[in-house]
Amino acid sequence: MAITTCVFDAYGTLFDVAAAARQAASEPDFSALKDSWPQVAEHWRTKQLNYSWLRAVTGAHCDFWEVTQNGLDWALEKTGHAGDAALRARLLALYWELQAYPEVHKMLQTLKAGGLNTAILSNGSPAMLKGAVDSAGIGADLDALLSVESVGIFKPDAKVYDLVGAKFGCAKDEVLFVSSNGWDAAAATGYGFGTAWVNRSNEPMDRLPWTPAHTLKDLTGIPALAGV
Predict the structure, then answer these.
(1) Calpha distance 50→118 (Å, rounded)
(2) Claim to verify: residue 10 and residue 120 sit in the same structural domain
(3) Cα gap 92→62, rounded to integer Å
(4) Domain count along the chain
(5) Is residue 85 located within the same domain as residue 148?
(6) In terms of residue numbers, what domain contains 142?
(7) pTM of the model
(8) CATH number of residue 37's parent domain
(9) DSSP letters along 100-164, please?
């Protein structure tokens, strides 16, 4: 069946999650981050994801903003920046205005011009997603911002992927789901979506029962995969 709906993970897929630490490190007030910002960014993202999985399997759901703060606190302690309240506050503020990857706007416009539905499906809370989308100026290119908060559990629970069909009334095989997380794209494959893994860092494939249908270096090839 032809693709009618393209759905994107947000963080790491449309928005550069390293941008907050990179930006802070370039500011004179936070020069202490100059050499360690890549490690802060990596640990922050890793723990953010780890905590979402642990909360999902233990039934201890919370807003993704709390998970994001918890992950940052661990990362700052790990890298020797614990107790720097000003740095913590600046990094959290920057997370609400993450930069979109350069190809995002044109790619989404191409999909819309081709008549496809477009949406974000993310662990992020509605407020977080709106902040990022508004900051990146891509709101007009998206038909929906779908957040796990409406089902109370993080990805990769199937109830999250169910949100796409509920919103657009489409069959699973009409959906192209795109994520920079290999595990997310793999789980969506198992769910029944067409999938694309955006593997910007040349990571190995996750050892899971399913694999993404397509692997790309960035988002420029998404319209072609969607048949536009």
Answers:
(1) 28
(2) yes
(3) 17
(4) 2
(5) no
(6) 5-15+99-225
(7) 0.95
(8) 1.10.150.240
(9) BPTTHHHHHHHHHHTT-EEEEEESS-HHHHHHHHHHHT-GGG-SEEEEGGGTT--TTSHHHHHHH
* Tokens 């709106």 sit on residue: 130
Where among 95, 117, 145 does a domain terminate? 95
Residue 33 shares a structural domain with residue 91:
yes
Residues 141 and 73 in one domain: no
Q: Please give the chain's pLDDT, 228 residues, in tens.
A: 799 999 999 999 999 999 999 999 999 999 999 999 999 999 999 999 999 999 999 999 999 999 999 999 999 999 999 999 999 999 999 999 998 999 999 999 999 999 999 999 999 999 999 999 999 999 999 999 999 999 999 999 999 999 999 999 999 999 999 999 999 999 999 999 999 999 999 999 999 999 999 999 999 999 999 999
CATH code assigned at 127: 3.40.50.1000
Active-site annotation, residues = 9
